[in-house]
Amino acid sequence: MPDAEVICELVNYWAERGRMLHRSLESVYESLRDFLVCQRDGRVVGCAALSIYWKDLGELRSLAVAADYAGRHVGQELLLQAIEQARTLGLARIFALTYEPKFFQKLGFRPVDKADLPSKVWRDCIRCPRADACDEVAMLLELS
Ligand SMILES: CC(C)(COP(=O)(O)OP(=O)(O)OC[C@H]1O[C@@H](n2cnc3c(N)ncnc32)[C@H](O)[C@@H]1OP(=O)(O)O)[C@@H](O)C(=O)NCCC(=O)NCCS
User: Fold this and answer.
1) Sign of the C-alpha dihedral, residues 97, 99, 101, 103?
2) Is 0.70 surpassed by the pTM of this model?
3) N or C: less crowded end of the chain, CB within 10 Å?
4) pLDDT digits (tens, 9 = 90+) for 65-85
5) Which domains, from first to last, does the chain contain?
């Protein structure tokens, strides 16, 4: 529970710079059990959430690393932990919508057409303010 506010700050720091979508504190609390955090030097310097989308599909969301910890493999470690969790849960695939496809590509994700993610489109995208002009790239990792 004490990490919720810093998670919200990390995400919104990057959202204000156009790098990801904003999240309200309410939405962070709603999905707090999905979140991993990375602590360094006694503070939370990164977060990521793995949400279960469908029986075989997970989504990696809200991956954010504090600017002063960039490039120290915090993001990679969070992503690897989330992938491990997904395997443990028995998910077959994880996707992410991102402006940083190359970062995801380094860990085996490949770009896919958003139309290949129908449940995502119907469940979240129709409520997104950028639904008609979405410029995020869909990246998918097959776990099986
Ligand atoms: C993208 C982000 C999570 C990367 O986190 P990070 O801790 O700085 O990255 P890491 O140090 O773990 O990088 C791991 C590797 O990916 C590379 N990498 C990181 N960001 C990259 C990028 N934008 N493009 C290409 N490669 C990148 C690193 O050089 C590193 O390579 P190496 O293993 O050869 O040294 C971070 O910059 C961030 O929070 N960005 C803003 C929010 C965001 O875009 N989130 C993405 C998903 S919504």
Assistant:
1) negative
2) yes
3) N
4) 999 999 999 999 999 999 999
5) 4-142 (3.40.630.30)
